[in-house]
Amino acid sequence: MQIILTQDVKSLGKKGDLVNVSDGYARNFILPKKLGLEATPKNLNDLKLQKAAEEKRQKEILDEAKALAKEIESITMNMYIKAGEGGRTFGSISTKEIAGTLKEQHGFDIDKKKLQLPEPIKTIGTHTVAVKLHPQVTAELKVKVDEQ
């Protein structure tokens, strides 16, 4: 019997997959627990429409991420840190501070976890910070650090 899975089932498949299972397994386990639907022409058509809608939604999200990446790459953010003689800094600039300043100066509300900084910024100058907006889209943010 062919079944369309409505939820992920371990060792069988993921949500939306069309799988072949024995009649007893379908009648006694899959259908009563509402883990899947029988693959009738109506249900197959509904599945096709759902997949098309999800694909369209994912494409829109990707396009929005690309547009946001272009905006982020076009700006240079200014931050200040206390420094002593010889350019030695007191403290460092973390992703939390960068995210807060980015929202404050330019209005971009980006989660600090999306900023990819191998280690906090401890030197004066211009640094680039990778911003992972989408699994396929990464922007480069320019952070200019000056003495306070």
TrEMBL record:
Keyword field contains Isomerase: no
InterPro entries xrefs: Ribosomal_bL9, Ribosomal_bL9/RNase_H1_N, Ribosomal_bL9_bac/chp, Ribosomal_bL9_C, Ribosomal_bL9_C_sf, Ribosomal_bL9_N, Ribosomal_bL9_N_sf
Domain of life of the source: Bacteria
Alphabetical GO biological process terms: translation
GO CC annotation: ribonucleoprotein complex; ribosome
Record GO terms (molecular function): rRNA binding; structural constituent of ribosome
Residue runs in coiled coils: 44-71
Residue ranges of every copy of the Large ribosomal subunit protein bL9 C-terminal domain listed in the record: 64-146
Ranges of residues in domain Ribosomal protein L9: 1-47
Pfam families: Ribosomal_L9_C, Ribosomal_L9_N
Keywords: Coiled coil, Ribonucleoprotein, Ribosomal protein, RNA-binding, rRNA-binding
Gene3D superfamilies associated with the record: Ribosomal protein L9, C-terminal domain, Ribosomal protein L9, N-terminal domain
Family stated for the protein in its record: Belongs to the bacterial ribosomal protein bL9 family.
Function recorded in the entry: Binds to the 23S rRNA.
Protein known as: Large ribosomal subunit protein bL9
Organism: Anaerocolumna aminovalerica
Highest classification ranks of the organism: Bacteria, Bacillati, Bacillota, Clostridia, Lachnospirales
Gene: rplI
